[in-house]
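Before drawing any conclusions, I looked closely at one protein, both as residues and as discrete backbone shape codes, quoted below without any editing:
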Amino acid sequence: MRTGPTNKSMERLITEIRKVAAKESSDFWRRIARELEKPTRNRRNVNLMRINKNTKEGETIIVPGKVLGTGNLDHNVTVVAYNFSESAINKVKSKMTIGELLHKNPKGKNVRIIG
């Protein structure tokens, strides 16, 4: 019986995250890898309204799942996620993928998990 993600790009991302986490001794990236290993239905889905309510100007946040487009952002925040809904893509000015953040910030410093 198969467990974990069946999406090949997700499997590669998790493997890459685990390598960086081991190299950098990063509990942050280990936690992100564990979150991404969950079945799709158990991963976090977060609306922009919740991100707006729980963040401050200039902050970087990560959603180990999908960002949904309900609500708006009234301040500048960098949103990192595995996936974005079409409406969220149009509303978020500063966004990146988890893989991009992994290369930019291998230690995982100054990033909060929202979910």
Q: What stands out?
A: Residues 62 and 80 are 5 Å apart (CA to CA).
